Task: structure prediction
Amino acid sequence: MLNRIIIADDHPLFREGVRRIIQRVIVGKFVEVADTKSLFIEAEKDPAPIIMILDLVFPGFEGTTTIRKLREDYPQTALIVISMTDEESVANDIMSAGANGFISKSVPPDEMVRAIEKITQGETVICLDADTSGLHMYQNDFARLPPRHVDILLLLGQGKTNKEIARDLDISPNTVRTHISGLFKKLGVSTRSAAVAIAAQQGLI
Result:
C-alpha cells in the first residue's frame, strides 16, 4: 500500500508545485485538499498519512491550535508547514505546537527538497528566506525542560531502551513512557531519533 501524503492549501497551483517537489523525495499517493474540514476527513482514512503539508492561511485552519490537534491525533505523521510567512517567531510558535518542519514559500525548490528530506529522516527543521545558510535546526529552549526529562533525553542519546532507562533511573517502564511522551511534546517531535538530533544540535549530548 502506498504512503499517503496530504497537501492542504487553497491555491491549486501551489498544491501542484509542492506535489512535484515532494515527489523528488518520496513515492506515495498524494491527496490535495483546500480546507481544514477536508483535511481532517482525509486524515482519518486508512492508512494514516505519513506526511501532511500545511499552509497557515486557508479556510478553517487555526494555526497552533490546529497543529496541536493534528499532532495529538497523528503522533507518527510528519507535519510540515509551508507558508508565505518567514518570521522566525511565527515559525517557533508552530514548531512548539508540534510541527516537524516550517518552510517559507519563498525558498528555492532545491532548498525545499533538502529541508523535506531532513524532516523525513526524523529531524525538525526551520527553513526561512532570511537564513544565511537557508537551513537551520529548530532551536529549543532546554532550560524549560524538567530535570527528569533531561535525564531521559541523555539516556535516549545513549541508545538505551525503556527497560534500561527504567533500571538506571529506578522507575517503572510505564513511568518512562509517560516521561518520553511529555518530552516529545515539549520538543515538538514524535520519534526518539528526532529528539536525540535536537539534543545533539544544542550540544546537550
